[in-house]
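Sequence in, structure out. Go.
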Amino acid sequence: MTPKRPKAAGALPRAVESPAPLKPDPNALYAALDLGTNSCRMLIAQPKGSQFHVVDSFSKSVQLGQGLEASGRLSAAAMGRTIAALRVCRQKLARHKVKRMRLVATEACRRALNAGKFIAQVRRETGLRLEIIEPEEEARLAVISCAPLVSTKTEQLLVVDIGGGSTELVWIDLSRVPNRDRPRAIMRLHAGFRQDAGPFPAARVVDWISVPLGVATLRDQFADVEDDAARFALMSWFFEENLEKFAPSASEQSRTGFQIVGTSGTVTTVAASHLGLRRYDRTKVDGLRMSSDQIDAVIRDYLSLGPEGRRSDPRIGRDRQALIMSGSAILQALMRLWPTDRLSVADRGLREGLLYAQMSADGVLEDGPF
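Output:
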């Protein structure tokens, strides 16, 4: 979950943050709900040019995956918290009379033995129909959400989505796509990673992987290690070991034309800490480019603070402090492995990808520049 934002901070980047009409047409509205291992997040939006306006939103830490690593099941308490949050989402959907929506659940529900029972309970108690999506679709949606941040100079793109229960990595070759069309080629991946040759030059997905380690699951793997620095080093090493089968990691890559985009609460929290933001401001974070040295400096600061210092650091926030070091361990491993000293920060992800995919499929987005 991204840090809690003040009302003054935009809910989406400048390209999509202009206020929507006071009474939007319900027939023009789309909704996207992302139920992850840690948080329940929803956006309601309407198309506007090649982007969209946000009409309403919701975000709450529900910790659905709490205890899942040990028991293999969703606990009654976690399910209760989540259903309470979903009732709020249902009220918002009803208030706006939204008809087009996708409501998805990810890693916690993919892994839980009692996920089917939980999905049925959600439908019975809230009327919402949750859909458990596969890792490939989750990765694809994360990729298209980041399309506006892709540079026209990028030839090799790595998109990383660090979640609560899993981390998705997608490597994309854009070298055969004309420069100006590269962000648009990323958007066209909403139809699938494997595309037939058509009238438009296609982005080629070299490889992708869903690692069953996110900020919560990686933290739980090493919860018994008492020393803070040792735990961090072990988490980073262990995550790197799990990337062994990711094809691009086995060969040396060129630094020229390479871009890595990171989307997650970890990445945005590190960016906010780098900027010294005591109150989170999305307009300053989304699209920020950070160097490896800047990222390392923030992580070293986190380690020097120790668990107690991190708990009281306003830049991290109460919702993120327990997960920031496992997320940082993943981020540091990624920056160590690939040929770049820059990371593009994306405060966007599955919800935005769901909205883009629905709107693109319906043909309601203008085919113009982002």
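Check: Residues 1-21 have pLDDT under 50 and may be disordered. The CA atoms of residues 117 and 143 lie 31 Å apart.
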